[in-house]
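User: Fold this; tokens only.

Assistant: Input:
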Amino acid sequence: MNVPDIKKYLRSEVMPTPFCKGCGHGILMHAVLIAIDELGMEFDNMLFVSGIGCAAWIPSPHFAADTLHTTHGRPIPFATGAKMFNPELDVVVISGDGDLVSIGGNHLIHAARRNIDITVIMANNKVYGMTGGQLASTTPHACITSTTPEGNPEREFDTCRLALGCGAGCVARYSVAEPVKLRRAIRNALRYKGFSYVEALTICPTQFGRMNKMPTPFQMIEQLREVCVPGTREQVMAGDVPEGKVYVGEFS
């Protein structure tokens, strides 16, 4: 098996990456670039858009391509404007759960509803990792954050269920513990004509792991393997998920 040399897609001046040790975003970045390479997509015809947060650093400044590093919660409107101005452009949004779902959730649902031809890749590390480990809308019930020291009293958002409910035609979720399946889902999303959404479950040892007694990246990867179970579109839409588990798969 020939492994593509992804260094050709990266800016040499930003190596090594700024991510914390053990951060799962590096795995996601690798999966995105391998998918692009497998499809033979041209970086010259691509625009990567991100907001604010740890995951927003995946395309900007790493990718040797055109990037927009925008205001918090607003990458999808910027991406929409770029796509409307140049419909031939391949526009990809890569950002975090706090940016895309908590602060920018309204833009996510309307982009899905309008079936705008962009790909949104959301890195879900279950917490606001860059700003101090605060509670996010994706933080699982009872988990500890810096703003919920006694545990999150609320249930978390199922963002794939949200995207499907808004009419998105291509929706998938995998974790960085299954990089081959994650890469395949990203590849399918990139070639889909219309709004496509991939949720990448990732890890934040520095904030989420430390506060929830999973201090090592290995423990967190193993925990992802345990909680992720294959699911169907019907199961996701029904919200019929076993306690402590999360459905993964390509749901549409």
